[in-house]
Amino acid sequence: MEFKPDIYFVASEIYPFSKTGGLADVLGVLPLTLYKMGYKVSVITPMYGRISTRDFSPHLMYEDLKVGYPWPDISADVFRASFHGMPVYFIDRGEYFDRRYYYCTHKGDYFDNCERFIFFCRAAMALMKKIGNPPQIVHSHDWHTALINSFIYYQKLSDPYWAETSTVFTIHNLAFQGRFSVRLFWDCGLPYEAWNPDGVEYYDSFNLLKGGIAHSDMVTTVSPSYAEEIVTPEFGCGLEGILQKKKSSMTGIINGADYSVWNPEQDKFLEANYSATSPQGKKTCKKDLIDNLCLPSEMLNRPVLGFIGRLRSQKGIDLLLEIIPTLVKRNIGIVILGEGDSEYEAQLMNLVELYPDNVSGIVGYTEEMAHKIQAGADIFLMPSRYEPCGLTQMYSLRYGTPPIATAVGGLKDTIVPYPEKNSTGFIFKNSTSQDLLKAIDQALEVFDDKEAWMNLQLRGMKADFSWKKSAELYVKSYQKLGLGRKKSKPDTI
Ligand code: ADP
Ligand code: GLC
């Protein structure tokens, strides 16, 4: 019998098929966790050119599914793969998604991003209808898929197919709103009345994320602290007004870590595996990292700080780059993996050239190196100016690499700051390079006390951020919206 999902996740990235950051990590595990808990879940995502479907062999499910945007007879092909049993549907339209990058090149965003994601959202709507069995929950993520919830909000009024469907919208990053010219609103498929300040209009621009917030039955963010922060002007990115109005239907659910991927005990990228009960392998991983990056072997006995992330101001990379000359005077190692603003990339390369014995920088995206740094570094740096959740600090805790992070969003919610009794890392308050430096110095002092450091590491390694707890919180939210009211038929893929 054909699988007819009750919950559709719709997202622009899902690991291991596609990934530029934490959104993909979340989509790679949350739907699957719910699926394994017995819910009828599936995911809809674009078929990118760089998609990694090697082990999943998707098959063509629908050819020429009518989408009708941006011209009347345009269509999409739909492929389906089984991801550990859970269906993943890929929307395929070569000229939109088969590109070298997902959203932008080094020169900036693709000029047709709005058109691409209107197309995607409309194709996802058409697919959900084609499959039949009206969904109980449609859960979309970030600006790329926000429009789906707006479509459902309005289609409910005229099309009984959607009458029983509730929508959830998760904000992973409020700073990326998908703001475009009003011109793109007119034929996207929303009715004229959606164009108002309580809908998709934002100071004369078409704001897709705002529509998702306005038109969803429930809005969630990826940590409780971020949910509190974004209703303030400091973190609200101009949308604090509408978020305040939505406050009663908004909830912050912390992300989890996928320990089947991020676990030093079974990490296939590491030179040696280790765990809280058998931590010796971490030293081998440190040596492997140092050798790989051609840092001098004396660094094996010096603290090595690691950073992994987008080289953007959100991540506070500028604060770190600024204090590198001072850190070098302490004769420690600094390893940075990331890509992003060309200005930061150039500054990093310059520092590598100036301090080759202490600083190693990898500009690019490499999954293997991310794992090697988590395991091989002693201390993990996350000086973010804001952080909706942050996953890398959760991974670093499990890898025995205590994090130093700013007191924002999910960082605050996942790290117990030194010197508290159960501390797992270090937190500093203000996003300044001086405060970051002070926190690093505090960590270096503890690092010198071998026993205190080991205890800090072990507490972090034992901290449990597995997805089950968070997935259960999502279920509770779905149930508030009526999931389970109608009994689903037990069919299989
Ligand atoms: P964000 O989603 O804001 O970028 P998160 O901490 O939630 O931050 O997740 C980032 C994810 O992307 C992690 O899995 C991290 O390992 C990965 N990542 C970020 N930059 C790189 C990079 N240059 N190479 C490999 N992995 C990276
Ligand atoms: C975003 C946020 C990050 C979060 C991730 C997954 O990219 O910047 O903090 O962890 O989404 O939710």
What's the end-to-end separation, in Å? 7 Å
**Count of DSSP strands:** 20
Shape: globular
Radius of gyration, taken over Cα atoms and rounded to an integer in Å: 23 Å
Strand content: 15-25%
Q: Mind telling me which CATH architecture of the largest domain this is?
A: 3-Layer(aba) Sandwich
CATH-defined topology of the largest domain: Rossmann fold
Largest sheet: 9 strands, mixed
Helix content: 25-40%
Low-pLDDT parts are: none
Name the CATH homologous superfamily of the largest domain.
Glycogen Phosphorylase B
Structural class: alpha/beta
Describe this structure in words.
This protein is an alpha/beta fold and 493 residues long. The protein has two domains: 7-256 and 468-480, Glycogen Phosphorylase B (Rossmann fold); 281-464, 3-Layer(aba) Sandwich (Rossmann fold). 37% of the residues lie in helices and 18% in strands. The chain contains 18 helices and 20 strands. The protein has helices at 22-27, 30-36, 94-97, 113-131, 142-158, 183-186, 208-215, 224-229, 240-245, 281-292, 317-329, 342-354, 367-376, 392-398, 409-414, 433-448, 450-462, 467-480, and strands at 7-10, 41-46, 59-66, 75-83, 86-92, 104-105, 108-109, 137-141, 166-171, 179-181, 201-202, 205-207, 218-221, 250-252, 304-308, 333-338, 359-363, 379-382, 403-406, 426-428. The strands form four sheets. A nine-stranded mixed beta sheet has the order 3-4-5-2-1-8-9-13-14, sandwiched between helices. The protein has a six-stranded parallel beta sheet with strand order 17-16-15-18-19-20, with helices on both faces. The protein binds adenosine-5'-diphosphate and alpha-D-glucopyranose.
